[in-house]
Amino acid sequence: MSSQDQAVQSYAPGEHPDLPAPMLTSGPLFWIKENLASSWLNITLTVITALFLFVVIPPLLNWAFLDAVYVAADRNECRELGSGACWAFVSERFTFFVYAFYPSGERWRVDLAFIMLILALVPLLYDKTPYRGYGLIYACLYPFIAYWLLLGGFFGLEEVETHAFGGIMLNMVIGITGIACSLPLGILLALGRQSEMPVVRMLCVVFIEFFRGVPLITILFVASTMLSYFLPPGSEFDLLLRVLIMVTLFSAAYLAEVIRGGLQAIPKGQFEASDSMGLKYWQSMRLIVLPQALKISIPGIVNSFIGLFKDTTLVLIIGLLDLLGLGKSALADAKWTGLSNEIYLSVAVFFFICCFSMSRYSLYLERKLETGHER
Amino acid sequence: MKKLLLGASAAIAMFAVTGAQAGTLDDVKAKGEVACVVSTGVAGFAYTDADGNWKGFDADFCRATAAAVLGDPNKVKFVTSTGKTRFTILNSGEGDVLWRNTTWTYVRDVDVKLAFQGVNYYDGQGFMVPKKLGVSSAKELDGASVCIQTGTTTELNLADYFRSNGIKYEPVPIETNDEARTNYLAGRCDVYTTDASGLAATRSTFEAPGDHVLLPEIISKEPLGPATRHGDDNWSDVVRWVLNATVTAEELGVTQANVDDMVKNPGKNSEINRLLGTEGELGAMLGLNKDWAHQVIKAVGNYGEIFERNIGPKTPIGLERGLNALWSQGGLIYSPPFR
User: Fold this and answer.
1) Which of A21, B73, B129, B283 is deepest in the core (most CB within 10 A)?
2) A185 in Cβ contact with A308 (< 8 Å)
């Protein structure tokens, strides 16, 4: 638009340029008015919140970043260098927190297993991956590859005992094995609980109610202490394996109930329709019922997974050193004692990243599978 | 130090008819490593360094055991245990020996079916208070709030002591030493009570250790020592005499630095010679090599050296020898003769 046009101030019909909206109906000021200052109550709340943030945030930033010490040899040096957090402790222990007691010459195996895990997850989680079919076959083989990589003992890899597992690696091993094994088991249990065969139904009900009725800590104690009394002496039954089995069974019981909720939300007409099409039981479950039931259950399933992943820290009480356990035992080092805030904050950040990404992925999945049933 | 009076674990242990194996010594030699049950982390006694190596007083005694049996202090497997799981791990055979600052008590010895093999640290329960409270004796603590670890013998000792002295107190239950430290510094309790060694270690990490005092009263006996399974006498002998060898070595002036020299050029003191295997056949009686004690001292040093290195006055823990000095220097550390 030229300056001449503005000077004339006349337009052909329909050619008038759009005028800006009146003040306070759009733009940042409108947003502030609508969201922060729409009533006296909201104005008061806004002011109180702003004051609260003003009081809390600057000291927190000072402590965590500005006054923090990143490089130091021990606690005393940290104290001399700055008044904030002593991240030097966390960075000194970082590799230890990741690999724990895994032999230092063999740590590339953990790295490789982790990279291969990511490669296996991509085709599983993202359906537009090129060559997804091959990717899925690889994902099914992955558990065996990971087992070989982490434990070794054959095909030219040195054996590493499971008592060397610890730290983030242990959380990942328990969490991922638990998640991967408990989902199929949970689906079977949910179907079994709805089965018309009384024996199968009874077995599933007893199993689910038993594991839901007993706290995970109790189950872990049984895994670590009682089992060794029942087994004949000398029969070495790996502690980590016992824990993995117990965690999987526990989580499967919860998942079964979540999935049963999904199954009950499927209208009876769907079952009858698949029967009338002549589909066998497993066909109708696989093709008609489960895809719908699982879709409805996604929030609950992911909820259980997140719970399971956080519960992996409970192995601490039976003497397995996961990330939290390693952090606690590192606090016993006289060179660094008293830095619990730094350790617990780092552990919290790790778990937040893992759990938050799981919950974001589940939202993405829900949106992708959205087929117009939303109310 | 979690002295959990676990009635449950005692009850479980009573059913442990099949748990204990005879001949741990042979098993250990066959496996080629000693499985030591240690704690998940106690300052100065057992903790991990940045590279994941176990360090500390208990860890060193564990290495000493491996050096004696296998001739290599690094042939050890550390099995971490909590206060709740330590006895079952030992009794089920997952661990070979418990070097985990565990108090020797009647119930643990008799009912939990452990065999304690001596005492490597004499501890006792004490009190720490801020100096500004102006308290100089535990008897003046009437009405104080006390930070106390739940489910431990310290909790029972405290109740006994205050009841017998007619003092009222308000317990502030906490779970770990670190939690106690935070609560105590924040002023949520006036007094922190646990084993004196733990108090000293905790105080050493304060920004101003001088503002806090340890009260003179020690209200309990906490003899900490190694334990093995009941009924495994050969293996028990090995553990007991490894501890005795470190004590005797200190008594006789055998150190990590001079032990090689003493073996190469045996002197006239025949107890040193018997200890180090240059005279007599003591090793063979125990089912070990002739030079087992030599290996122990070479690996970790004598009792005094282990103490100084991990928890002595020059370390951040800063514990004095006190009761843990040799008997000849006014302490309680005493070894039967090597004869």
Assistant:
1) B129
2) no
Give residue A186's pLDDT.
96
Nearest to A334 among B79, B88, B317 (CB): B317
Nearest-CA distance from A238 to chain B in Å? 10
Between helices A107-125 and A87-99, what is the axis angle to 10°?
Answer: 80
Judge: A333–B49 Cβ closer than 8 Å, yes or no: yes
Contact at CB, A96 and B51, closer than 8 angstroms? yes
Rounded CA separation B21/B23 (Å): 6
Copy the structure tokens of residue A120.
């296996």
Sort out which chain B residues have CB atoms less than 8 A from A101's CB and list them: 52
Residue B314 to chain A, least CA–CA distance (Å): 12
| A334·B205 Cβ contact <8 A | yes
pLDDT 10s digits, B60-85: 999 999 999 999 999 999 988 877 77
A372: DSSP letter: S
Domain A87-102+160-368: CATH superfamily, name plus number: MetI-like (1.10.3720.10)
Assess contact for B42 and A256: CB atoms under 8 A: no
Closest CA to B133 of B184, B195, B203: B184
**Pick among A90, A231, A329 to test the B interface (most B CBs inside 10 A):** A329
Q: Assign residue B85 a region (left: φ > 0; alpha: ψ between -120 and 50; beta: otherwise).
A: alpha
Integer CA distances (angstroms), B199 to B41, B209, B215, in order: 15, 11, 11
A-chain CB neighbours of B55 within 8 Å are 333
| A224 Cβ under 8 Å from any chain B Cβ | yes
Q: Which domains does chain B have, with CATH numbers?
A: 7-122+223-329 (3.40.190.10), 125-220 (3.40.190.10)
- Give the integer Cα–Cα distance in Å for B48 and B81: 14
Task: Kindly report the average pLDDT of chain A as a whole number.
Answer: 88
Residue type at position A20: P
Tally of helices (H runs) and strands (E runs) in chain A: 17, 0
Nearest CA among A315, A247, A277, A343 for reference residue B80 = A315
| Closest CB from A229, A329, A334 relative to B316 | A334
Question: Cβ contact (<8 Å) for A79 and B89?
Answer: no
Tokens found for residue B309:
């290195």
Q: In this predicted model, what pLDDT tens digit does every residue of B196-255 receive, in sequence order?
A: 888 887 887 787 888 999 898 889 998 999 999 998 999 999 999 999 999 999 999 999
Domain boundaries, chain A: 35-66, 87-102+160-368, 103-159
A241 to chain B, minimum CA–CA distance in Å? 14
**A106 close to B (CB below 8 A):** no
Give the number of other CB atoms < 10 A from CB of residue A323: 25
What radius of gyration, in Å, describes the C-alpha atoms of chain A? 28
Both tokens of residue A113? 């297993």
Q: What is the DSSP letter of A225?
A: I
